[in-house]
Each structure stands twice: as C-alpha cells, then as structure tokens.
Design goal:
By secondary structure, the protein is mainly beta. It has 2 helices and 8 strands, in the order E-H-E-E-E-E-H-E-E-E. It starts with 8 loop residues before the first strand and ends in a 16-residue tail after the last strand.
C-alpha cells in the first residue's frame, strides 16, 4: 500500500520549555503568534496561534531552561484504520492517543531520540486519551 504525500499537511510543532523561558516568548513574538485555547491535557502548556491555527504547542517543564523540540505534527483526512494498517505493514512501533474534546486520533511514531512524529487523523470512536506525558522529552 502506498500513501500519497499530498494527503498530509503540516499541522504544528511542539516544544518543551519552562513557562518563563525568554526563547519561547521570543519565538512567539518573532512569528507573530498569539496565546490561545488549549484542550485540557493532563499536563500544562500553551498553544500559540497564527490566525485560527495553533501552529506552536508548548509543553511546560518546570525545570527546563531552554526551548527544545518535542515533535512535529502532520494532519490528514485519512481514516484511522487505514493509517494504522499502513504503519503496521511498515512494522513501525507507535502509540495512539485521542485529542481531548475533539474527534482527532493522534498517532505518535518515534524514529530516534530526537525525532518524534505525530500524525493526526479523524477518529469517530469514543475513546479515552492515553497519558502522553511519556512522549515528552526529558
């Protein structure tokens, strides 16, 4: 099975940072982003918006001094079962989560210590979110 690259669109980057990290504020200002709504995850953070799109997700880590990349996310309308079948065919390990208050499945694939990919697709199932804190870089 081959998936068309054109079906995936950039959604956001996620960083881990101290809430007071000057670099995080500078990054948001540089890109002209404004702080906005964030679903009620089990961990603290902020979402920064460009117009109506939350393109920068910050995960708070109290002991962190710098801003570190956590993951890159892409969005598709591909059905979740099709995506999972493709991932399983490629024999890639993954973790499945559910975006709180939204019908979005989040599929996390770690390719290396420094590269975590999030693939977001529609999820019409009623599900319980997994604890995604284990995916945050320490």
């Amino acid at each position: 099975m081959s998936l068309s690259v054109s079906k995936w669109h950039f959604d956001h980057i996620s960083v881990v940072s101290n809430t007071r990290a000057p670099a995080l504020a500078a990054l948001a200002r540089l890109l002209g982003l404004s702080d906005g709504y964030r679903p009620p995850f089990a961990f603290s953070g902020n979402w920064f918006y460009q117009e109506d799109s939350p393109v920068l997700h910050a995960i708070h880590r109290p002991d962190g001094e710098e801003v570190e990349l956590n993951h890159i996310a892409f969005l598709s309308e591909m059905p979740l079962p099709v995506l999972l079948q493709h991932i399983q065919t490629l024999q890639l390990p993954y973790q499945l989560a559910h975006l709180p208050e939204q019908a979005i499945a989040q599929v996390f694939i770690r390719f290396s210590d420094s590269l975590l990919l999030e693939l977001d697709v529609p999820d019409i199932r009623e599900g319980r979110a997994i604890d995604t804190t284990e995916l945050i870089k320490e």
